[in-house]
Amino acid sequence: xxxxxxxxxxxxxxxxxxxxxxxxxxxxxxxxxxxxxxxxxxxxxxxxxxxxxxxxxxxxxxxxxxxxxxxxxxxxxxxxxxxxxxxxxxxxxxxxxxxxxxxxxxxxxxxxxxxxxxxxxxxxxxxxxxxxxxxxxxxxxxxxxxxxxxxxxxxxxxxxxxxxxxxxxxxxxxxxxxxxxxxxxxxxxxxxxxxxxxxxxxxxxxxxxxxxxxxxxxxxxxxxxxxxxxxxxxxxxxxxxxxxxxxxxxxxxxxxxxxxxxxxxxxxxxxxxxxxxxxxxxxxxxxxxxxxxxxxxxxxxxxxxxxxxxxxxxxxxxxxxxxxxxxxxxxxxxxxxxxxxxxxxxxxxxxxxxxxxxxxxxxxxxxxxxxxxxxxxxxxxxxxxxxxxxxxxxxxxxxxxxxxxxxxxxxxxxxxxxxxxxxxxxxxxxxxxxxxxxxxxxxxxxxxxxxxxxxx
Length: 456
What we know:
alpha+beta
């Protein structure tokens, strides 16, 4: 079985020869023939759009929804009837698609995975080897042809304009997307997103079965020599085709984290060789979107240790911005992640009367980490992290007492022996490549959002 991505043609919705193929009234996506028929019915794209049924998916997800109406229709009604009448699967026409609102490359993945999920579901209860049957499987990345069909059936006022854009794009889904997003300053795109896109986010199927002559006649239908065209059945009830503004039914789910506070225990209980313990304050705030894989993290680290009697100082202010990509997204944001960061630092560090530095610096690099839950609610998490990159600083060393005449006057001086008229601050520069940070973090959610799913 091979999957391929394609656009859809605008062929007429012509029904297969009714003398060979019977469309089941209760199941318009099922065609049945006598076993002597060897050629599959011709299922054009337009016919497929009218008769196919299938399973919807949530935004950016590929798992089946347990409450989808197609599941009981197939498992509890169609499959028992097929088994009772000894019908044998002959061919499967299946098509999976994604709604156009997400990134195109991600929609390619979604359409392929949704096609596979529907095939797996069909085979789970049929007790027939679907994998060995001829299969016409398509993954339509962004199904604009079906969008046009839905708008036509709904009598949408903008049907002609959207249809013209799709036809002028000649099957180029990316081009069509750009034009639709620009139409009416984005207002049309926003309306399509709310009204029609949920119906595009699904995998649909048409099935062809054969019945052996020894099992004829079946009470539900008779094969005849009639050549008249069958009436096209009503569209499946699970497809939304609003003809007037509809009332939203909002289903609320458990709250989802939006902003979490985090601290790095290695900074909070820092130990510095030649200085000792230099505990400080480290606070980070991470923003989690409702969906996707990316989060935004901002952090600040503060150390302020001053031991005048031993001339030891550890004073630091460090700010950091980070963009993370979790491999497990869709609201979970757990497991491994990679990120990129920028940071800026000012510092004053002294280990003795003759060894001290003051300066500023900045850096950038990559971060790697892993996050796991510490409680059932998932509000408390543990994170391990490591950062690698470059850090550049300009600084001056300083000493206790006058470095020119050696007098101890109770002041600190820059460690500089040249002409005072030529002195400029930050005479020294240092660049570091390699590990720049490490962390054992505790994260706690402090601001939540409601996750809502709008169903028409």
